[in-house]
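Any chance you could type out some protein's one-letter sequence along with its backbone structure tokens so I can compare the two?
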Amino acid sequence: MSDDDARRLVVLRHAKSAWPEGVADHDRPLADRGVRDAPEVGAWLHAAGLAPDLVLCSDAVRTRETWELAAEQLGGIAAVPQYDERLYAATADELLGVVREAAPGTRTVLLVGHNPGVQDLVLTLAGAGDGGDDGGTGTTGQVRDKFPTSAIAVLRTDALWADLAPRTAQLTDFAVPRGPKG
């Protein structure tokens, strides 16, 4: 499979959330910093040419808000999100199970979720737990050390989505877009 035919999995941790008193974890909104950072995520995706064909998004308030603010920066070329309750507080294995359901013709999948699941998924797919394969970018160490809010990991794979498994992807990029301080 050539680079033009490769599939890309873009893994995004939601932007910084608030901790309002009396609000259930699932219902926590973005904090002011998250509202500033989420559009920068979209701008980064747009600049990198990573408009997704499929968006798999946790149904939690903070992930939904992150995607909605990021999508505004993609110039109308973003896919309609699939909000999925299975992605909330999911493990890496559970996230992988949802990604494996993507249609074979889908080229770029964006997964918007939560830590530690998203970080563990990236490390599992890239094989970073045992030295890793980051295509020489040196980013697996960064991902292993910290996967902060608004972090984006880009994985390339030649595998069909249904066949995606540990160490079948290459970590090609890692970024943490931030908005201007308020």
Notes: The radius of gyration is 15 Å. The first helix runs from residue 32 to 47. The mean pLDDT is 90.
